[in-house]
Amino acid sequence: MELTNRELIDITNALQAAAEKTYPVRVAFAIGKNLKALKAEYQDYAETKAELGKKYAKRDEKGQIIQDQQGNAAIQNGKMQEYLEELDQLLDEKVTVNFRMINFNDIKNREDLTGNDLYGLQVMLDGEPE
């Protein structure tokens, strides 16, 4: 399935939350495999984002990156718009993830699944609710 990095981040976070619940072994295995595939793509995104941060980072007189209050690279004065445009391009880049599918019937009777859980699980569901 083709996803943007933006979707990849959202789905990874939602599926991680859904993974905290207990499932039959086949469903749990599929969730684990899918999280592993998503995290591999996320790692590539995170590395590219870090490089982008370094490119636009403020540096001290020794060339060391200056961090903001959240621990992220502080962006050079006058470069924030350029940085945000490149970050937006990165978020819109497409990646392909091969998901292990489960049937909707495997989870249809689960009353403990939240909307966020279902958002994460939707990419791996075959079948429709009745």
From TrEMBL:
It comes from the Bacteria. Residues 35-93 form a coiled coil. Keywords: Coiled coil. This is Uncharacterized protein. It comes from Eubacterium callanderi.
